Amino acid sequence: MADETRPQAASDVMALAARYLMGTYRREPVVIVRGSGSRVWDAEGRCYLDFVSGLGVNAVGHCHPRVVQALTQQASRLLHVSNLYYIEPQALLAKWLVEHGPFDRAFFCNSGAEAVEAAIKLARRHQRNLGQDRFEIVTALGSFHGRTMGALSATGQPRYHAGFEPLVPGFRYVPFDDPQALDQAVGPQTAAILLEVVQGEGGVHPASRAFVEAARRAADRAGALLIVDEVQTGLGRTGRLFAFEHYGVVPDAVALAKALGGGVAIGALLAREPAASAFGPGQHASTFGGNPLACAAALAAMQVLEEEDLVGRAERMGAYLRERLVAMARRTGHVSEVRGIGLMLAVELDGPARPVADVCRARGLLVNVVTERALRLLPPLVIDEREADEAVAILESAIAEAAGR
User: Fold this and answer.
1) Is 296 helix (H, G, I), strand (E, B) or coil?
2) For residue 228, what are the β-bridge partners?
3) What residues does pyridoxal 5'-phosphate bind to (predicted)?
4) 192: domain range?
5) Is 287 annotated as a binding residue?
6) CB 173 within 8 Å of CB 167
7) Catalytic residue among 107, 144, 171, 244
8) 147 labelled ligand-binding
9) Binding residue per annotation — 286?
10) Quick one: 288 and 325 in the same domain?
11) How far is it, in rounded angstroms, from Cα 190 to Cα 134?
């Protein structure tokens, strides 16, 4: 029998994946084996500047020493214990998150989809506790909230629904960034409004301030919760700790994941009172949620975020990168728009994005095709100006080559 503990050749790994994994991903032909800071290396030794960062997960960079140290120390002490007992790293992480925002309590889970599911349940439970029979959740077209059935039903994109009907009932969709349509959709059955203030999977589209303010007013008028999905935007990505801070609006709850664990799977739902106390014992739970290992990593990642001022860095580097991208767009003539906030940016092309992403990868830059004509840039928050310039230069040459074809 082959020694499966030894490193495999890239072709062997791809063959194993093709044979034994379900075909749920359209994978790039790259086997990533190592990462450090803003760069990763593949099984053939090639280095890439990573502007995907695990779809926003590696915000503090790949294998940050503080996160690695926290994981190593916690793994040697305690990997897992049930939530039937108190868990020190979990309590410390909850304290950090609550003290750095407008929220009162935290619930921990394993992913963004689970955080959204918890938010849906919290909204309905909160209404029941008030003696109300409200259950409807208003969300936006173009949104993406996750792949589990509740989060999928909240997602306002029919292409994700196809083949999985019937969906969970009780969701109503309104056009994104249409304050009037949102206001009209909120009624006596509305338990919550669930929004991304920047639609990520929908193509990196920031909402207007008027839309977010209308959501807060409509929720208050109806006695519903305003829940913001910050799975992708939260924890520094947009140049604020929470993206809703750009809008001057405070939600009742926020769903987090991705950047929270510094590379380790963890999600969280943060909520303000009185909704924060809606769940009683046994009404919601997660076996692995808030486990010692994930919480130790997340606490270290949050400390890095604060001590290295990565939120401020995201604001500064986001402005720098956007300026370079806009200048590139003028030179190439093949970019119709550069949009986004902080280090969450999209480049809209006048032709297909896939060929450009392929050339970028061949030249050492990883970017994500988010729609047919748009590339999404989600670099680690630790990038510097030299790396931003390198990325723009590669992207510009890739656009030119793809256009020439």
Assistant:
1) helix
2) 195, 254
3) 112-113, 144, 229-232, 287
4) 65-307
5) yes
6) no
7) 144
8) yes
9) yes
10) no
11) 6
